[in-house]
Design a protein that fits this description.
The structure is a single chain. The chain is α+β, with helices and mostly antiparallel strands. About 45% of the residues lie in helices and about 25% in strands. It folds into 3 domains: about 100 residues, Beta-Lactamase; about 90 residues; about 130 residues, Heat Shock Protein 90 (2-Layer Sandwich). The chain has 7 helices and 11 strands. β5 and β6 form a beta hairpin. α6 runs antiparallel to α7. The protein starts with a strand and ends with a strand. The model has no long low-confidence stretch (mean pLDDT about 80).
């Protein structure tokens, strides 16, 4: 569709397709800045919908196109790709061309939703595989050890051997309980739902220090502040993954974790002074840990930045706009 306006911004002519935007009645035809009455702002590099530096006020937009939101005669607000060019220098007449991009945006949104669903399923499957490995390598192995010791007890006749094996089984069962508890915390710590990020991190870092002997230097200004469940879950998982990667690959004795909230954003940062790695090279393992961080961050419109180099340690920062 195309609309012609004079130097004052009045509509002087339009094609039939433009009637979707500017009705046929005389109130709009020739009305000063009639386009403004139908415009709901345009997209620039800073704002989604804004009237700052409006194209109608500009001397010349040039050949570049931009996106503008227009009110239609059907009562809806729809996005259009637009150009605004001078076609007669003497009279100042300009041509305002529009192309409705709602169908393309709808297709893009559906494609994006489908991609996010695929990524979510992919992440869920990887999590299931990890849980399966944890169950097999720890819980099932411990249960098999208990089963073996119980079978041996059937053939033991002296009291001392029975007491010794009973103590051994007791130790195996205690370890089994700890393994199940740890796995439960990794899956979904109850403190995250009940008390929030700060409490969940304190519990997790205590477990890290007990299980791996790695000291976690933790700073947080959240206190009891809560966020949307999705934000808390994503932040917890990304920090958890970053700490685990540091333990697994960095060869460190301690790791720094900082959680800070301001009026504009929530920032979580995990820093180690370990081996670091070459970001341009294939990371150790499957690389799904780093991939998963970005996947999770996309779900809450957050950004993940990984700063690392060989011999210089690694810094993982995630920022969530609030």
């Amino acid at each position: 569709m195309i609309v012609f306006v004079d130097a004052s911004g009045s509509v002087i002519a339009k094609n039939d397709a433009a009637k979707e935007i500017i009705a046929e009645d005389n109130d709009y035809q020739g009305m000063t800045h009639a386009i403004c009455n139908r415009c709901d702002g345009y997209t620039n590099e800073y704002d989604l919908q804004s009237c700052v530096n409006c194209f109608l006020e500009a001397k010349e937009i040039g050949n570049s196109s931009f996106q503008v939101f227009m009110k239609t005669t059907h009562g809806t607000i729809e996005p259009f790709t637009a150009t605004y060019q001078t076609i007669d220098e003497a009279t100042g007449v300009k041509a305002f061309t529009l192309q409705n991009v709602s169908p393309q945006i709808e297709r893009h949104d559906k494609m994006y939703q489908r991609q996010m669903m695929q990524k979510t399923i992919h992440a869920q499957e990887n999590e299931r595989k990890r849980i399966s490995r944890e169950l097999h390598d720890s819980v099932i192995q411990e249960m098999m050890n208990v089963d073996i010791e119980l079978r041996l007890m059937k053939y033991q006749k002296d009291v001392d051997s029975l007491i010794h094996n009973s103590s051994k089984i007791e130790g195996l069962v205690t370890k089994l309980i700890d393994d199940i508890r740890n796995l439960s915390v990794e899956l979904r710590p109850s403190s995250l739902d009940d008390l929030g990020l700060d409490a969940a991190f304190k519990s997790y870092f205590k477990q890290v220090e007990e299980n791996y002997g790695i000291h976690v230097i933790y700073h947080c200004n959240l206190l009891t502040q809560r966020f949307d469940n999705e934000i808390e879950t994503v932040i917890y998982r990304i920090v958890q993954e970053a700490v685990f990667n540091a333990i697994k690959y960095a060869e460190i004795d301690f790791v720094d974790v900082d959680i800070e909230v301001t009026d504009e954003r929530l920032v979580a940062k995990v820093v180690d002074k370990g081996k670091g790695f070459d970001k341009s090279a294939q990371p150790k393992g499957t690389g799904l840990g780093l991939y998963g961080m970005n996947e999770r961050a996309e779900l809450i419109n957050a950004k993940v930045n990984i700063d690392t180099d060989i011999g210089k340690g690694t810094s993982v920062t995630v920022e969530v706009p609030l």
